[in-house]
Structures are given as C-alpha cells and as structure tokens.
Write a structure and sequence with these properties.
The complex is a heterodimer. Chain A has five helices and five strands. By secondary structure, chain A is of the alpha/beta class. In chain A, strands 2-1-3-4-5 form a five-stranded parallel beta sheet, sandwiched between helices. In chain A, helix 2 runs parallel beside helix 3. The termini of chain A are close together. Chain B has five domains: 134 residues; 106 residues, 2-Layer Sandwich (Beta-Lactamase), CATH 3.30.450.20; 70 residues; 137 residues, Heat Shock Protein 90 (2-Layer Sandwich); 187 residues, Ribonuclease H-like superfamily/Ribonuclease H (Nucleotidyltransferase, domain 5). Chain B has 19 helices and 17 strands. Classes of the chains: A alpha/beta, B alpha+beta.
C-alpha cells in the first residue's frame, strides 16, 4: 500500500486530507511542523509527501532542501502546497526539489488526481 | 520782394558806375551821381519797410510757433497753441496744434496699453509663481546637454536644497545619469519615428535615485521646439520614499487577510467534499467535519469584514510599481555599501524591472550585508538575467551557498530601515522570494532574487538596445544531437559552418524577421577564408529604426533581395553535412525553424552554441557575450553587428574552443555534447 505523509499545521485540512487519502487506499501519516516531517520521512518512509510551505519551526522549503540533500531520503516524491497568486513560491519550490505544486485553496479533485498521477509514475518498491 | 528791391538797387548802382567810368564830362557826371544817391535812398527806405513787415507778421510769429511746438514736443503734448499776434502763417499754428493733440492721444494710448500689459504680466507671473511653488512635484527644465534652465521650489525640496540644483549646472550632478539618458534616447527615438506626435507625447515615467540616495518618481518629456533654440526637456520629480512605505503597509495587511481566508477556504472545501464523498463515515467524524465547516464559514465572514473595511480606505497605489533600471538600483546600493567597505558590482547588461524601488534597494543592501556575514565575501557581483516573465538579480560570491534555514532566519528579521516590515513582508510585496544554491562553478555560490520584468525591456531605445535574450530553457546544443550519426567522429577533422543572422528585432513570434544571413566554413580546425556565405534577405516588412542603428541594413538595401525561404535553400546547400555552430544559436534558430517548412529544407544535424561552450569552458565568469568571449580569447573584433563579421569572430572563437576541448580530453562530438549538458 503506497504511503502518503501529510505535513500541514492546519488540523482541519489534515483531517480531511487523511480521510480522502485513506478512502483511495493509501496509508497515511500526518505531522504539523517541519522538524517532525523530516523525522517522519526517516521513519515512516513515505512514497509521497504533501508539504505545506508555511509552517512553524522548519518551513516546507527547508524540509524539501534537506530531504533532497540526503542520499537515504531523496527518493520521496514531494507535492508542495503554495499560495495562489504567488508564482514565485512555485518557482522556488521547484528549484529546491519539489516534484509538483498545488496552489491553496485547491479543489479536492485536483489533489487526489495529482497524488495518483505521481504514485502511478513511481517505480514499485 | 526784398530780392527784387536789392536787384533793382544793384542794377541801378552798377549802371551808374558804368556810366561814370565812361563819361568824361563833369556836368553829366554830377547828374549821374545825384541820380544814384536818390536811387540808393529810395532803395534803403523800401528795404527797411519790407523787413519791418516781414519781421512783425512772419518771423516773429514763426519764432513764437516754434517755441509753442517745443512745449508740445518736450513738455506737454496737451498744450493748446496760441500765436497771440497777427500773422501771415495761415493754418500752420492750428495744424501744429492738431499734431500736438494727436501726439498726446497716441502717447496716452501707448501708456495705457503699456500699463495694462504690465499689470497683466505681473498677474500672470504671480499666478505662475504660485502654481510652481505650490506644486508637490519638482519641475526642472533642461537643455539638450541636461544643463538646468529652470526649476521650482519643490525641486529644491526633492533635492534637499542641494547647491548643485542651480541654473546652468548639469542635472547629472543631481541624479544618476543612465536612466535619464536612456529615457531621453527613447523620447528622441519616438519623436523621430513620428514627428507629428512629438508635442502630444505624454512622456515616460520611471523611478530613479538622486546621487544623495533618495528615491524619486520621475517623468520626462521633450518640450516643443522654440525656433532658433536647441530642444529642451521637462523633468518632473517627486520624493516617494514615504508613500511607498504607507502603501506597502496596507498591502501587507491585505495579504495577511487573504492568507487567512485561504486557509479557511481550503479547509471548508475539503470538509464539505469529505461529507459528500464519504457517506458512510461514523457519527463522530461527521460531527467533527460539520463543526469545522461552520467554524470556517464564521472565520471567512469576519475576514470579509476586515477586507471590506480596508478596501474603503484604499487609495490607488500609484507609486508602488515603477520601471527601474537594474544598473541604477545596483549603483545606488553599491554607494551605500562602499561606506561599509563592501564592493558590489553589476556585471552584464542592465535590465528594466517593474517594482517598488524603495523596497528593492533596501532588500539588495540587506542581502549583500547578509552574504558578507555568511561567507565573509567583500566583493560581490550582481548579474541581472532575463527569464520568461521575470528578471533575476543573481548575487555571486566565492564560498558556500546559504542553506534554507539561514534564509528563513534572514526573512524573519526586522531591519531598522524596513519601517517595521520583516524581510519576508517586503519580499511578498515585491512578489518575490530568495533562494541560494551552489553555483555550477565549484567553490562559488549564487543567490537568486526574481522580480517582475518591465515592458520597457522591449521598447526600442538606442543605445540601450537589450541584448539578445539567452534562452536557457531551450538548449540548441542538445537539439537533434541524440540521433546524430556524427557523435563518434573526431572534432579535429570535422567540417563546421559557423553562422549568424541580423534581424529586424528580437521576437520572431511577433513578426520579426531575418534580414541578413552569413556563414563561415571550418574544416579540420581551420577557417576557410575563400568560402563564405553572405546574403541579404528581404524581410517582407519594415525594418525598425532601432535595429537599423545596430546592423545598418535599411529597407532600400533589401528591396530587391530574395525572401528567406529562397536564401535558406541556398544556405542549406552551403551547409551540406557540416555541423552548424552559432553564438547564442538558439536565438537564430528560432527564426530559421519558423521558415524551414516554407523553404522546404530541414537542418537536421546538431546545432552547437559557443555561448554554452564558453559557459562550460569558462565557468568561472558569468560573462559570455560575444564581445566578452572574444576579449577573453584575444580574438580581434572586426565587423561586429554584420552577419559575416560576427560569423568570423564566432568561428575564430570556436576554433580556439576546439583546442581547449582537446586539452580537456574531449575529442568527439558526443563527448562534447555530454560535457556541455552537464
């Protein structure tokens, strides 16, 4: 079962995303800050993570940069959640190693579609 | 009458004397003498009488009249002439009196007109002074050499009472010259293009800095020509440091409100969708979702109130965004940094950005100081590169890249000069971000700051014509190279055609066309001098003056020339199996590819780019323009900006590169492509 790590400090968003991911048959784990996210990638070994940029302690950019710099972890696919109307956030996110971005507020359908798309493309572990 | 009498007397006397001298008889002589004496007496009496009459009735009244006329002319034109004496002067005194009256009337009219005119002038001058003094904008009029002809009190304020704001002084003692010069060039260009519209041209607005470091919003326009005088221009300026602060505060407020809405909205959509998609969830989860939905709705409503209130007070942010030339911005920051012992140099061509310059300057200075702290670098370089929609300010320094954790710390800081904004606030306001990574030259690092590009980039403003854009997203070297059967051939024996084009402009998709195409052959690393391709092309459209200034090719010269489709056919034959090479070849290939179909030819082989080769071979420097590379390699630059001239320069560069590649152990086309790609 593919594993999805959800990193966002907004509990309502996390709750709904978890429900939807589970319904689509993914194993999920959620954390609410960047430091925990980094640890979770190490232990939970997700195939994909949904990573919000704006978070306390360590933000999404830093998490992304550190994961891509780590030989053990860099395989994970990263979808970044960026703010609508902030084109430059996408650009920075992609420059630091994200695979895709989704702008907030997003449609539920769009997220599910993109998650499936990326997971289908990944080689089986 | 007097003359007749005298004549008579003289005749009588003469005749008597004649008779006296001829006659010897004493008796006759005595009678003649008597007659003469009588005649003389009568004549004398007659003469006296005549003189007396003349004196009383003519001479004396004339003298009187003359004195009266003098009174009129010298003292009082209103004097009424009165010759209080009988006289023979007829109408003359009256006529003289009439002249006096007419003179008086004329003088009065002139005096009235003069006094009316001067009071009108006084009024107007006072009004003009009031207007010019009350204007918030500084106004400066300069002649064609930018010497100041006029300025108003507000200009004094804008330039902080600088003693250099004085008549006859140069405007460039007050402001950075380059944005003003390039704007002037642009205005002149426009007025040349359409002289009719010269007087209705609304001018150009931009932002520049004073030499003292104040940010001013400026507008410039040419003034209508005055016959006999050289042309002049109007420079309107205003200190905008404070306005940009206020406007920025408001924008940050709005942004934070928006961010809040974004979170609630996202959560709302997700919760609502979950309820719909998951009909069979347990009651507890359902209750949580429902609670979330109502909480989000309430949060949205209150944010809405904040926004609605704020929008009421929102004034148009007219100063926020302006066109700024990167060299001006960097020069301004470099001056401030100099005091701290740091050197910031702009490399490459300047570009225009559309931004809030006040924030940009603060930000550039802040970043330079942080990079200095981070890496200890005292000398930093900034290069502006043109991307798709943005201009990138890239800082280069020897040392490590700045990790994201440190960037995050920088962004949370509240520098004093930022007026209670964090660096992050300012970045958001500019629509920007910063990130750092190692440079592809080992030992160097780069920090990027993207900003929105200005449309001024594309306005034809000689001499500041933008450099040909370097398309980093499209690598000419890689194109078609995979399928090339030439990959394993040794570079030292291959045939190349180094080519270049001249064009009507920079954007083929918007109708720009090739007007000149040239190629030079290289066989076994030698340039074949006798075998070149060099043809002019009829572009089938007008050639903008701005481009004529570069390549010197006019409509007359290409009138009778064939279209590109025809020339491409011959060029294709000239190239044969050779490999194409160009400097920034992607630029030229964009034009050529668009016409391949109609020309019924296809350039299938790889296209090599000396610009990419230069980046690979000389990665220590960011300067890879044709001129820079030629200078670096000691290639003599002749015939620049002609297709053949540039081809020859590029060919010499390419030959030198072939030897440099060999030194690196790169001997085949395949190896070269592989190396460049990395």
């Amino acid at each position: 079962m593919p594993r999805v790590l959800i990193v966002d400090d907004e509990p309502n968003i996390v709750l709904a995303l978890e429900l939807l991911m589970k319904r689509d048959g993914y194993e999920t784990l959620s954390v609410d800050d960047g430091q925990k996210a980094f640890d979770a990638v190490r232990e939970f070994r997700p195939d994909l993570m949904i990573l919000d940029i704006m978070m306390p302690k360590m933000d999404g950019y830093e998490v992304c940069q550190r994961i891509r710099a780590d030989d053990q972890l860099r395989d994970v696919s990263i979808i970044m959640l960026t703010a609508k109307g902030r084109e430059v956030e996408k650009e920075k996110g992609m420059a630091l190693g994200a695979d895709l971005y989704i702008t907030k507020p997003f449609s539920t359908r769009e997220v599910m579609l993109k998650v499936r798309e990326i997971l289908d493309r990944r080689p089986e572990r | 009458m007097l003359a007749t009498a005298v004549l008579f007397a003289v005749l009588f006397a003469g005749a008597g004397i004649l008779l006296l001298s001829r006659s010897a008889d004493p008796a006759v002589r005595a009678s003649i003498v008597l007659t003469l004496e009588v005649t003389a007496f009568i004549t004398a009496v007659l003469l006296l009488t005549i003189y007396t009459v003349l004196y009383f009735y003519v001479i004396s009244p004339l003298r009187m009249l003359s004195r009266e006329i003098r009174i009129i002319s010298d003292i009082n034109p209103g004097y009424v002439i009165n010759v209080a004496h009988p006289h023979f002067l007829g109408d003359i005194p009256k006529a003289a009196g009439d002249i006096g009256a007419a003179l008086m009337k004329a003088r009065r009219e002139i005096a009235e007109a003069v006094s009316a005119g001067s009071s009108d002038m006084e009024d107007r001058k006072a009004r003009l002074d009031t207007i010019l003094s009350s204007l918030r904008e500084g106004i400066i009029v300069c002649d064609d050499k930018a010497h100041i002809l006029f300025y108003n009190p507000a200009a004094k304020r804008v330039f902080n009472n600088s003693s250099d704001l004085a008549l006859g002084r140069s405007l460039y003692k007050l402001c950075t010259a380059s944005p003003i010069e390039s704007t002037l060039a642009l205005l002149k260009q426009r007025s040349l293009r359409s002289p009719k519209d010269r007087d209705t041209d609304n001018g150009i607005s931009f932002v520049c800095s004073t030499l003292a470091g104040t940010i001013i919003s400026s507008g410039m326009r040419l003034l209508p020509a005055v016959p006999g005088l050289s042309w002049s221009f109007l420079f309107v300026c205003e200190d905008i440091s404070r306005e940009t602060d206020a406007s920025g505060r408001r924008q940050n407020l709005l942004r934070s409100a928006l961010r809040g809405m974004q979170t609630s909205l996202t959560s709302l959509i997700l919760s609502a969708d979950s309820l719909e998609l998951l009909p069979d969830i347990d009651t507890a989860t359902r209750a949580t979702l429902e609670k979330t939905i109502s909480a989000d709705a309430r949060s949205l409503a209150s944010r809405y109130d904040v926004l609605a209130r704020e929008i009421e007070e929102l004034e148009p942010a007219r100063y926020l965004m302006n066109d700024v030339s990167s060299d001006d911005a960097v020069a301004c920051v470099a001056r401030r940094l100099e005091e701290k012992g740091l050197r910031l140099t702009l490399i490459g061509d300047p570009l225009w950005v559309r931004t809030d310059i006040h924030s940009l300057l603060l930000l550039l200075e802040f970043l330079a100081l942080r990079i200095h702290e981070h890496a200890g670098a005292r000398n930093m370089e900034v290069e502006t590169l043109l991307g798709d929609k943005r201009v990138y300010f890239n800082f280069y320094w020897p040392g490590e890249a700045v990790p994201e954790a440190e960037i995050r710390d920088w962004k949370s800081r509240l520098p004093e000069a930022f007026a209670a904004h964090t660096v992050s606030d300012v970045l958001e306001r500019l629509g920007s971000e910063i990130w750092s990574s190692p440079h592809h030259t080992p030992g160097f690092a780069i920090l990027r700051l993207p900003l929105p590009s200005s449309t001024r980039q594309w306005e034809p403003a000689f001499p500041l014509v933008p450099a040909r854009p370097v398309y980093t997203d499209f690598s000419a070297t890689e194109e078609a190279a995979e399928t090339s059967p030439l990959r394993d051939l040794p570079l030292s024996t291959m045939t190349f055609v180094v080519f270049d084009t001249e064009t009507t402009g920079l954007t083929p998709l918007e109708g720009d066309e090739i007007i000149s195409l040239a190629g030079v052959k290289i066989i076994k690393r030698g340039i074949i001098v006798g075998e070149t391709f060099d043809e002019l092309v009829n572009p089938g459209r007008s050639i903008p003056q701005s481009s004529v200034r570069i390549h010197g090719i006019t409509a007359d010269m290409v009138g009778g020339k064939p279209p590109l489709e025809e020339v491409l056919g011959r060029f294709h034959a000239f190239v044969g199996n050779a490999v194409l090479v160009g400097h920034n070849a992607a630029f030229d290939m964009r034009f050529i590819r668009m016409k391949e179909g109609r020309a019924n030819v296809r350039f299938r082989g790889p296209v090599l780019d000396t610009l990419e080769l230069s980046r690979y071979l000389h990665a220590h420097t960011p300067e890879h323009s044709l001129d820079a590379v030629a200078r670096r390699l000691g290639v003599e630059v002749r015939g620049r900006h002609t297709a053949l001239g540039d081809s020859l320069i590029t060919a010499q560069i390419f030959v030198k590169f072939l030897f440099l590649l060999q030194e690196k152990g790169i001997t085949t086309l395949g190896q070269m492509l592989e190396a460049v790609r990395q």
